[in-house]
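Hey, quick one: can you model this chain's 3D structure?
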Amino acid sequence: MTKQEIRTAEAPTPVAKFSQGVRKGNILQVAGQVAFDPKTGDVVGTTVAEQTRQTMRNVQAVLAEAGASLDDAVMIRVYLTDVAHFAEMNEAYGEFMTEPYSARTTVYVGLPAGLLIEIDALAVLS
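Sure thing. Here's the predicted structure for all 126 residues.
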């Protein structure tokens, strides 16, 4: 089994040496996505809800490039900069998810200035 890079113009171009996603066999790992607009590189939104929506759109774009969707995600990891943002993030995140829900972990971290959230995903493809 070879490792295949997943790359799309519909998600932000990584600023460091990593892939937007990597597929090996039926496993797809989507790298941590943030609220960058893929066309301009600007941060979308100043609230955690706005940034969550853009971040989820970026995750969806990488999944789609690999022929997958959020329905294929078995694990989502959410990285927040502030515990007070959890409820607002969770509400916006819920707009994208359907049952049966993916497993999810939420942790609190430091991110570059202006960014409130980062999300990565692990998917299993048919």
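One thing worth noting: Strands lie at 3-6, 21-24, 27-33, 73-80, 103-108, 117-124.
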